């Protein structure tokens, strides 16, 4: 499967200012040295508690936020090195669907104006072709033509999110960040929107970074899943593998909190002690050691390595001292 997006050692820090002169005294490490890739037409789910850096990572990848360090390449083009002008051209390939469609749609613009704007800004298609494409788009996302003259406040949450999805699709992108795209919707509407995203992926071969705090939703839609904690990815593998056998103690705790719809199965919830530490002053060693039920002495002082606990064909990356780096035979 060919690679579409490659993220290498990406970091995003925010200065924390203080004192009379408002000098930057510390840094908030929202995203810290993150690497992964997404193949064409695949979905990488990203999970973790709120404040772990998921949304910042999504925005830094498409440069809605400028990364502090690291590179992002889309089809081999280094997005992180593009000039503003070049980025504007390339942005049509990378779009975002926000959590709150109401906040992300202008209340003063009709749906037609909202959908036309990106096509006009990027000078894509003739005016007649634009109109045809908007009608096609509406059909794709399950909306009727008459909504083109309506305003966002006239719709339900599910309809508004369909408009948000249509807007993300207007420029025919190759990659979409879906940032908590179904979190604000009722469960029944959630599954309709998730099925719509799946359908779009099949038809147009779009790759998704699907950000959510909801493990059940991520399991439903993802091919691969990354688990984030304090700005770092602590575990990453295929969705089937992760949900069958989570390895990192943090992932185990997250999974144990998901309700099991089987009264015969006893719930064995792992309750994590304490709050997520501040990303301004993260703990040394393993950042999870202050809450980990399996903490060891080494965890308090030495950052764990990331190892492949799976195989070359079915990788399963985990960042934890419970999975030591395998010994390699020395060259003779
Ligand atoms: Fe827990 Fe140690 Fe593994 Fe961190 S490295 S997750 S503290 S066992």
What can be said about this structure in brief?
The chain has 332 residues and is an alpha/beta fold.
C-alpha-based Rg, rounded: 21 Å
Q: Which structural class best describes the helix and strand composition?
A: alpha/beta
- DSSP helical segment count: 11
Largest sheet properties: 8 strands, mixed
In what order do the strands lie side by side in the largest sheet?
6-7-8-3-9-10-12-11
Looking at this structure, what is the CATH superfamily?
P-loop containing nucleotide triphosphate hydrolases
- Which CATH architecture? 3-Layer(aba) Sandwich
CATH class: Alpha Beta
Q: What number of structural domains do the residues give?
A: 1
Mean pLDDT: 90
Helicity, as a percent range: 25-40%
- General form: globular
What would you say this structure looks like, in words?
The chain has 332 residues and is α/β, with parallel strands linked by helices. It has a single domain, classed as P-loop containing nucleotide triphosphate hydrolases (Rossmann fold, 3-Layer(aba) Sandwich). Helix content is 30%, strand content 24%. The strands form two sheets. Strands 6-7-8-3-9-10-12-11 form an eight-stranded mixed β-sheet, with helices on both faces. Strands 2-1-4-5 form a four-stranded antiparallel β-sheet. The two termini are 36 Å apart. The structure holds iron/sulfur cluster (SF4). Iron/sulfur cluster binds next to loops.
